[in-house]
Amino acid sequence: MLSLCGKLADFFRWSNKEAAKVAIFRLAHEGTAAQQLSFFCELKQYVTNEWQNSLTWQIFSDNPPVFHIGEVGIRGCTVSEIAPTDHIVFDLEDTCRLLCSMHYDGSSVISEFHRFAVGTVAGRSADSVLAAQERFLSDAPNLLSALKLIGLPQDHSFRDIGPTVERMVHEMTGDVDAAARAAHNAVNLTYLATLDELKAP
Q1: Which of 30, 35, 76, 163 holds its CA 20 to 30 A away from the CA of 42?
Q2: Distance between CA 92 and CA 99 in Å, rounded?
């Protein structure tokens, strides 16, 4: 594991390599999802914007989550291991960084939620899209648990989440349209996570 930590540390800024090694080791050995997220979040702070997409939090509908650093995966705690008290308050920047890192069944949540959560909707409108996304999220407990674990919506308002995600995605991609779509998805996700009927396990 120590040699793997050293190899993965090449993803990080030179001045942060030693700290990254420690964070990777802790990420692989912590026993709760919140603890793992805190070290994954620390790792995200050590990479430049162009490398942010190399660190992803892969969430699955029927398998435990995996933290990816490049091509290497580190198993995350399962949803059943997430207790209501297993919560760390992340600041706004860290929450948005984690949201931008999330993938669900292989698709980027922040970039593709408007597609994979909606599918084909007859008479497509803003209301019908939001209703389809609500139905999808209510049937995706692992994704909903992940959203609540990073602090949506209890720690930050959609009014703050949207602009911050938009800025981050634009910094990472340089794509104005992609940044705007990501901000819209972030706002919808934050709103949907507030609905009483959408309860994480």
Answers
A1: 163
A2: 10
